[in-house]
């Protein structure tokens, strides 16, 4: 029976990963060996990248390791850009990214890059739980995060300066939000940076005038996730159901990448993740399944 992660567990894992801890029990030798019966592997693989995708990768690894006890799947949550850099320099077998790989990144890789869409995620815009603002439009979000709107009273809130939080520039979440919400304009110069989804949520929780954005799996009762409206439409809450239906306007694909078709342990791991059982885990950790 698969074990559902609690929000506390997700937050703890992500904070550890943001601090640079490698999660897993592998020896990092990146070697594999078929057992004589042909049905089991021994060895390890490295999976590196997005802190957003990490709960999925970790959930898959726990079940996959249990079913293949001679295999270690070593997970490192370092950010999408760092994961793809590791794929480029050959230090990871699988890169996790909450954005698409860029053409200039592909050009640095010897071989064809294979993309695996492993789930979907709604990006939730979060504020302090006591913030009186009830919803924001995409246009208002753009103006807030680029620094054109600087006081909550201008969007129906209290007379208080808005404290903007964003992710660090190596984050796929940062790049997706910048492209899809800011329309590639720059973040406000005084925006504060958070190293991970969990760090972002923790910062918002402690600052009454703050605003930020996190993957849906990192939203809990300690913060307030605002409904968002696209142009000419009513505000929509960031929920799995609304993301599935396409009503919520900030939804993205979560990806894993390999150089060439995955082989050996990496193939078995990804095959499991894309199976019904693997996609059950995607839902259990708070994201949207793709099967």
Relevant terms:
single chain, 291 residues, alpha/beta, D-Maltodextrin-Binding Protein, domain 2, 11-stranded mixed sheet, two-stranded parallel sheet, 13 strands, 32% helix, 24% strand, disordered N terminus, lipoprotein, Phos-bd
Secondary structure topology:
Blueprint: H1 7-18, E1 22-23, E2 32-34, E3 41-49, H2 54-67, E4 71-77, H3 80-89, E5 94-97, H4 103-106, E6 113-128, E7 136-137, H5 138-145, E8 163-167, H6 172-180, E9 192-194, H7 197-206, E10 210-215, E11 223-225, E12 228-229, H8 240-245, E13 251-259, H9 264-273, H10 276-284
Parallel strand pairs: 3-4, 3-5, 7-12, 8-9, 8-10
Antiparallel strand pairs: 1-4, 2-3, 5-13, 6-10, 6-11, 6-13
The CATH homology group name of the largest domain:
Periplasmic binding protein-like II
The averaged pLDDT comes out at 88
**What oligomeric state do the depicted chains represent?**
single chain
* Cα-to-Cα separation, first versus last residue: 20 Å
CATH architecture of the largest domain: 3-Layer(aba) Sandwich
CATH topology category name of the largest domain: D-Maltodextrin-Binding Protein, domain 2
How many helical stretches? 10
Low-confidence stretches: 1-39
Main sheet specs = 11 strands, mixed
In words, what does this structure look like?
Residues 1-24 form the signal peptide. Its main location: membrane. Pfam families: PBP_like_2. GO terms for molecular function: phosphate ion binding. The chain has 291 residues and is an alpha/beta fold. The protein has 10 helices and 13 strands. Strands 1, 2, 3, 4, 5, 6, 8, 9, 10, 11 and 13 form an 11-stranded mixed beta sheet that branches. Strands 7-12 form a two-stranded parallel sheet. Helix 6 (172-180) links the parallel strand 8 (163-167) and strand 9 (192-194).
